[in-house]
Amino acid sequence: MTREYLVIFEPGADGGWSAYVPDLPGLGVVGESREEADKLIREGIAIHIAGLREDGLPIPESTTTADRIAVPADLIFTA
Q1: What is the pLDDT of residue 79?
Q2: Global pTM?
Q3: CB-based burial label for 67 (10 Å; 0-12, 13-18, 19+)
């Protein structure tokens, strides 16, 4: 059985990338590239869940969702 968690990737001002999992509070990583952040967050999820199990804590359900919302151009661009 597998469970999927939403991962948020954000570019940093310095060219690096950060990633976090809203359903796993306290889990966040920073990488020099998006690929590195992806690798680190996957490792982090495994470590985080193993730690919860070790401590006898429940594994959080994946409940967070995401959507992209279109914003009219006239709200963004001004003449």
Answers
A1: 61
A2: 0.86
A3: exposed
